[in-house]
C-alpha cells in the first residue's frame, strides 16, 4: 500500500513539474510540433518551438478564448499575433492602431469612461485581432490582410498574409504559417490580456508662445510614427509635421495661423492642446512722433481683441490701450513717456520691439501769450492756453467736457476733436465726411456744425445740425468715441433751438434738451428715449436763452433768461419737473449792473459755477457787437446760498475791421462756451469774431479755449 502511494506521489510531482516548464517547449501533440515559417519584409523566418510563446486567455464558463502568439525573430525582433477569438475561419485585419509606433510603444486607444489608467492598460474590452512587428527602432501594426485559422483538437494552425507600412509610408509584406501544439497549455484569465494601446493625448506644446517659423515640440501619447497618419490642425489650418514618433511630433509654427489650440486626429480619435499664442509682430506705427496724450495706432499681427491681454510700452512706460484687434492696437501716449522703441507683449510674456517713437512731452502754445489776451481785474486768477484757434482744424465754436475722463470735446466747422486736459493733446474724432457733419449742400461753417453734445461712458450723444439737411430725417446721434463711429437716430428733425444748445442724459437713459417745436408750443423742454424717439414735452414755455446743467443721476437744472435780473430755473428729476424758481437774488453778488449777462454756467462737485459779463460803457453785449467786456467768475458752494465772486478780468486782445478797433471776447452764443473740470478749474471759449451778416471770420486765429484757475 505504502509502495503504491509513493509511486502515485512521484507521478504527480513529475506532472506538476512538466506544467512549470517553458510553454514554448511543448512536446508534440498527435505528431504536431509548435513552429513558424514565413517571411517579413523579404526576410525568411523559420522558428522552432523554443522561439515561440503562446498564451491562451479564457475566463471560467467561457466556451472559447483569445490567443496571443509571440515569435522571437533573430536580431532581437519580434512578431506578435493576437486572435480575439480562437475558432476555425478567416479573420480580416483592418487598421485600428497607428501603422508605425516607436520601439516598445503602445498603439492608439481611447480611455473608457469611469476606468482608471491601469484598468485601461490591461483589458480585453473591445480589443480586435491584430499583428505587430517589432524591430530595433519601431513597432509596426499590420494595416490590412488576413489570418486563416484551423483548429485540430488541441492544436491551432494560422496562415497569414499581411501588409505593413514603414516610417516613410512605404508598404512591406509578411506571409507564412505557424502552428501551436496544445494551445491551451498556458492559460490565463482575460484580465491579463496586454492591450497594446494608449490614450491619444497632447500633454504639452513647447513653446506655447512663439513667432512663426519657430520649431515646436508637441508631446503626448498615442501618436503615429508615420507622419501622414497624424492629422494636425491649428484652428482650421492644417499643419505638416517635420518628424513624428509615438510620443512627439515636431512642427514649424505656420506663418498664416492665429492664436488657438492644436488638435491632433489619429485614426478617428482626436486630442486637443492647451492654448498657443503667437508672438506679436509690429509692422508699423501711424506716426513717427506724438505728443503726450495723443493717440497712436500700432499695426501688426497676432495682437488680441481683448485689450486687457496686451501691453504696449514706449521704453518702460505702459500706455493706455484704447482699442484692440488682432492687427492693430490704438494707444494713448501717457504723461511721463520718453522717446524710445515701441514694445508690444502679451501680458506675462516676452515683448517684441518695434519702431522708435519720438515723444513731444509738452503741447506747445500756438496763440498769443495769455498776458496779451487777459487783463486781471481782481482775485487770484491764472490763465493758460488749452487750444488756440490757430490750429489745423479751424476756429472752435462749441465745447463740452467729460469730467470723469478729463477729456474736453471741441467742435469746429471741419472736425470733432477730443482734448486730453492733462496734456492738451488733440485727437480728431470725426470730420465733414462723418454722418454727424455731412449735409446735402456740402456747406460747412459755424452755423452747420453739430449742436448739443453730452458724454456718457464711451458714447457721445448729440444732435446734428438740421441746416441744409434736406434728404435726411434722423439728426440725433450716438457717437462711439473708441471706434469713432456714429449711429444716427430719431424719427424727425430735432431743432435744439434754445441758446446755448444743451443736452443731458440721465441714468434712466432719457435725453433732456430744449427744443424749438413748430408748429407747436415753440421753445419747450422735452425728453426723448435713448433712440431719440418717444418725445415727451415737459414744459411748453421754457424760454430761448437757457443753460441745461446735468447734476448726476437723473437730476438736472434748466436755467432760463440770460440777464441776472431775470434768471430763473426749473429743477428736474427725470420727467418730473418743478415750476420756474427765481435765481436772481443768489446771483446778485456777481452782478455789475442790470445789463449783466450770463455767458456760461456749469455744475461740478455739488457746486454751481457762473461766468457773467457786461460792457461798462453801456455798449451792446449781444453777439453782433464787439465792445470790451468785463467778466466776473462766481461759485455757489454746495448748490445753495449766494454766489461768491472769485475774480474779475477783461479780454484786451483787439482786432481791426473796417478801420475800427474791436475786442475779441467770450460772448453769448448758440453753443456752449464754458465748462468746469473735476478739479473745479474753469474752461472758457473765446470765439473768433465773425461778421454778423455774412459769417466771415474777421480775425482768423483769434480766440480759443483757455483754462482759468482760482
Overall average pLDDT: 88
Shape: elongated
Record the strand order, biggest sheet.
7-10-9-5-4-3-14
Measured by DSSP, the beta-strand proportion falls in over 45%
Using only C-alpha atoms, the radius of gyration works out to 44 Å
Question: How far is the first residue's CA from the last residue's CA?
Answer: 131 Å
Number of strands: 61
Note the main attributes of this structure.
47% strand; 4% helix; single chain; Immunoglobulin-like; mainly beta; 710 residues; six-stranded antiparallel beta sheet; seven-stranded mixed beta sheet; 3 helices
Short description:
The chain contains three helices and 61 strands. It has 710 residues and is mostly beta strands.
